[in-house]
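Suppose a colleague, Dr. K., hands you the sequence of a protein chain of 244 amino acids and asks what its three-dimensional shape might be. Before reaching for any lab equipment, you can write down a predicted structure in token form. Begin with the sequence itself:
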Amino acid sequence: MAKAPPPRFVIVQQQPDRRPLIAAVVAVIWLASLAGAWAWATWRAAPQLPKVSAELDAVRATLRERQARLDQLEQREATLQRSDQISRVANKQIQGALADREEEIADLRADVAFYERLVGSTGKPQGLNVHSTQFSPEAGGTWRYLIVLTQNLNRGAVSAGRLEFAVEGVRNGKLTTVGWAELHQRPAAPAQDYSFRYFQQLDGSVMLPAGFTPQRVRVSLRGDDASVEQAFDWRSGATVTGET
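The predicted structure, expressed as tokens, is then:
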């Protein structure tokens, strides 16, 4: 008799999965431990909470006080910086004004010294006068002139008027006078104004004709209260005193 073939299916009894149960138990134990730790910490810290709160309030009050003090110091520093800046500006302005006054005083002293050298302490008082003339060559063929006018007869009075001069010399073997207009190379050239109390320096530039040899300078002053005409020898680059 033939053996029966083995069954195609085998029934195996499956054991229940306990892993979710174990995980749940572990979670419960962990939560319980946390709750216990929190309860223990609360029990231990509860007596210290009022003291800690008081210390925290004191620290906050100290911090506010320090912040207020810091704000005051910053405001004071800003005020001092502004005050220092204002002081620096004012000091700079004062120094500038003092420098201007010192320069003005120096100019006045130089003028007084120059005037004293002109007239001398024992010099005879004179009215409107041409003290000196000076001519110096310039680039381009022009001549720079410097004429000094003085007066010490009427102290404090203002002498005002107009100045002209002509240059006498030789051209092409003949005596020639070059007038004010020709010297300035302008027809009807205006005279040079002057106005002073004690002395004045007048300057400018003129052009001498080609082939002209200067010998004398004749200066004319036309004022409201006086008219003067004086002649001077020509010496370029040197100051000379002329005679009326």
